[in-house]
Amino acid sequence: MSFKWSSSVQTVCDYCKSILVRTDVDLQKVGQVADLPPDSSPIQLMTEGQYGGRSFVIAGRIIYEYEQGAWNEWRFVMNDGTDGWLSDAQDEYVVTFRSNLIDLPAEKEARLGMVYQWNNVRYMVTSRTVAHYRGVEGELPFQYWDKTDVTFIDLKSDHGDFATVDYSDGDPVLYLGKAVEFDDLRLMNVRKFEGW
After folding, report:
1. Measuring CA to CA, which of 14, 18, 28, 151 is 20 to 30 A from 134?
2. Could you read off the pLDDT of 13-29 as tens digits, one per residue?
3. How many alpha carbons lie under 13 Å from residue 184 in its C-beta half-sphere?
4. What global pTM score does this model have?
């Protein structure tokens, strides 16, 4: 096994589907991925694209299921080594990056319609989603496997800005970014489907 990106902590073996986590000098098998559900996304591991004038490559994926379906969170690595996420849900795409802001609302406080301001941008809570982990593939910058139900709060600004507060761990984590059009990402090495 080899890790392609130095920021990766977890990977999934393409052949045996073992989930492997690395620490300073050790590599440990922590589980195994079940077969992933059928997916109609054109994005796949090693898809390349562009965002903000920089190139990126898809390094990993977390799949979530909720009452209305499923979505993909694609981890990408930019050409300068920065990690980001490309959310792919029902042909809607959002690019986000982890923020270091820590003054975040508690899960029960972030109700629909509430307004928060981060980096001088006003965001309104537009959805609260309880989802569960369905599977992973590729490399991730943290350990993420065998999770139970988690809550995500999505927020939008009046100008296309997007935010997600992720409550999957003890402390909430904020991701900030923008909604994007598929064609604007200039994706290469995408999956082809019959009839395209």
Report:
1. 28
2. 776 767 767 766 665 55
3. 12
4. 0.83
